[in-house]
Inverse folding.
């Protein structure tokens, strides 16, 4: 499991990470989402013992990254967002080298390398030179490399970036298998749909601040201050507008551009308030045909909260 | 004991040696190096035996040995920065360093492996040139112990300049700048020390005219003991620089100062490299400036 406590990283006056607190339970998949430069890679670098925090700390399987980095390295498999490969290394030699670097005995390496190559679908490339592989294959090989010492925690920084749709789907399949193997995975991406499907929990980070975390529904309710209610009325639309505008929880009432009988009601009340609103509308004889809530997906919310970025 | 050996026999060293010697370039390099050394030696013998007084005798053989040894030392000092100054920064530029640093390999093992694997090629070159030295033995004039001393000397120079190369490669992010810095350091050892030796000697003579023979001036000695070529020359020709060295009042032979200082420089450079390879994960507690 991973526990991040008050983690802060500053570069001079610039704060890359501000007081991050996060707990990722054993065996769960946590997706870290945020625009470029939000602090995802900084967090991952600290977890991978490649960067010292300015303050705060993080624990990986109970080991403090600032006090026991050697033990932390034993328990993590790290895949950076950008990585290179050695020229003139063959695929199986590449894995063998890193296996040896992690202290995996030779016999075990010989047993595990074919399994890993099968997992990432590179068995037929085992004698190919690494630098001749395609980008997607290199990404998969790097993922296999991060698994060579059978770590419990995987830190995957943008594992699907720069991949074509097919390679992305293949990568997703591999991650699903790792999830089934009960690895604790922290994975970052700036593409939400990619993550929301496979992650148990998500964290949205912006300007070094974690602005929401939890499962997909929790995040939606955390981030969505106002819900949009769609109300269509059979007739007497002005009366309906006046009724909704009178409600204290209603922020704004707008008519739909195309459908004259449809209203967009921006509402900030709770679910109970919403029930009362509908009841009251019916007792006031507002001829409501339909009453529904706009289903915004995570991507819409993410775009909304980060729209100042681009 | 096992831990000690794993510092030297480890995956990084295996990988480096495998990759370095896999390329055809390495063997071409050795081929041309030996061809040039061989040609120089044979040309030297030919010129001396054809045009020299009394054919190619033991003195000529000794001169040939000195030319070969000092030439090879020059080559070692020129090649070492190029081979070592990219050891760590090259990995950083290739974006392979981060992955390596998250493995279980200790910083000591990574740094030493990088150094030894970079120097392995030069060591191979040196040993490959051994048969050339056997030409010298045909004519006499040089004892086998002198050959051993010469090789030891070259290895130590290589080790120290290589350690400095690895240190600069660790603390400087760009290979290009690390290489230039290491070459600058190497030039300081070869030329700078000689200039500083002459200047400091002139100063000490000017201020203490009476103390030229048997004075107490350490500075000229400290400068000149860092110069590998001058030091090696004083081993072959003990009378060389003897007048100047008297002024320093230090009776130690120059080579002992060289050996001690080069070992110390190498050890300090390696300690710095090992400590700076991975970031210190300790959270720094600083007093806030208000």
């Amino acid at each position: 499991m991973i526990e991040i406590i008050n983690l802060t990283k500053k570069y001079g006056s610039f704060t890359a990470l501000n007081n991050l607190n996060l707990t990722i339970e054993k065996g769960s998949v946590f997706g870290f989402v945020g625009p470029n430069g939000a602090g995802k890679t900084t967090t991952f670098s600290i977890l991978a013992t490649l960067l010292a925090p300015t303050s705060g700390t993080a624990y990986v399987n109970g080991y403090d990254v600032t006090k026991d980095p050697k033990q932390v390295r034993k328990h993590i498999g790290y895949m950076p967002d950008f990585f290179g490969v050695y020229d003139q290394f063959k695929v199986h030699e590449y894995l063998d080298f890193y296996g040896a670097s992690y202290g995996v005995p030779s016999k075990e390496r010989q047993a595990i390398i074919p399994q890993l190559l099968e997992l990432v679908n590179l068995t037929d490339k085992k004698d190919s030179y690494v630098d001749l592989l395609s980008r997607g294959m290199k990404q998969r090989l790097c993922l296999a490399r991060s698994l060579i010492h059978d770590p419990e925690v995987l830190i995957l920084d943008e594992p699907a970036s720069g991949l074509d749709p097919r390679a992305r789907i293949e990568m997703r399949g591999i991650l699903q298998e790792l999830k089934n193997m009960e690895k604790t995975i922290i994975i970052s991406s700036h593409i939400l749909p990619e993550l929301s499907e496979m992650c148990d929990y998500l964290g949205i980070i912006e300007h070094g601040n974690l602005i929401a975390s939890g499962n997909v529904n929790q995040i939606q309710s955390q981030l969505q201050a106002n819900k949009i209610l769609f109300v269509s009325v059979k007739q007497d639309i002005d009366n309906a507008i006046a009724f909704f505008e009178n409600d204290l929880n209603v922020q704004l009432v707008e008519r739909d551009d195309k459908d004259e009988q449809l209203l967009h009601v921006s509402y900030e009340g709770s679910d109970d308030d919403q029930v009362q609103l509908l009841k009251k509308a019916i007792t006031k004889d507002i001829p409501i045909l339909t009453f529904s809530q706009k289903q915004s997906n995570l991507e819409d919310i993410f775009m909304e909260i980060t729209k100042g970025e681009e | 004991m096992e831990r000690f050996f794993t510092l030297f026999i480890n995956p990084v060293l295996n990988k480096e040696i495998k990759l370095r010697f896999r390329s055809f370039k390495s063997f071409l390099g050795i081929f041309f190096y030996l061809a040039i050394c061989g040609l120089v030696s044979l040309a030297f013998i030919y010129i001396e035996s054809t045009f020299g007084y009394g054919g190619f005798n033991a003195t000529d053989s000794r001169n040939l040995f000195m030319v070969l040894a000092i030439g090879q030392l020059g080559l070692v000092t020129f090649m070492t920065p190029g081979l070592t100054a990219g050891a760590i920064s090259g990995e950083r530029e290739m974006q392979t360093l981060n992955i390596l640093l998250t493995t279980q390999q200790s910083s000591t093992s990574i740094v030493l492996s990088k150094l030894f694997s970079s120097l392995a090629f030069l060591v191979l070159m040196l040993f490959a040139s051994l048969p050339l030295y056997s030409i010298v033995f045909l004519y006499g004039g040089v004892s086998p112990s002198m050959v051993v001393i010469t090789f030891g000397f070259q290895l130590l120079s290589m080790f120290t300049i290589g350690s400095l190369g690895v240190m600069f490669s660790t603390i400087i992010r760009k290979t290009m700048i690390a290489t230039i810095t290491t070459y600058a350091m190497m030039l300081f050892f070869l030329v700078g020390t000689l200039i500083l030796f002459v200047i400091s000697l002139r100063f000490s003579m000017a201020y203490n005219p009476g103390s030229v023979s048997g004075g107490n001036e350490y500075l000229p000695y400290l400068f000149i003991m860092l110069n590998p070529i001058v030091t090696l020359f004083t081993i072959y020709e003990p009378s060389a620089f003897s007048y100047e060295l008297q002024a320093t009042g230090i009776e130690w032979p120059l080579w002992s100062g060289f050996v001690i200082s080069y070992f110390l420089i190498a050890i300090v450079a390696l300690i710095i490299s090992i400590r700076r390879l991975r970031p210190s994960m300790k959270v720094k507690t600083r007093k806030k400036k208000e």
Observations:
- The first strand of chain A starts at residue 2 and ends at 11.
- The mean pLDDT of chain A is 87.
- Chain A touches chain B through 38 residues (CB under 8 Å).
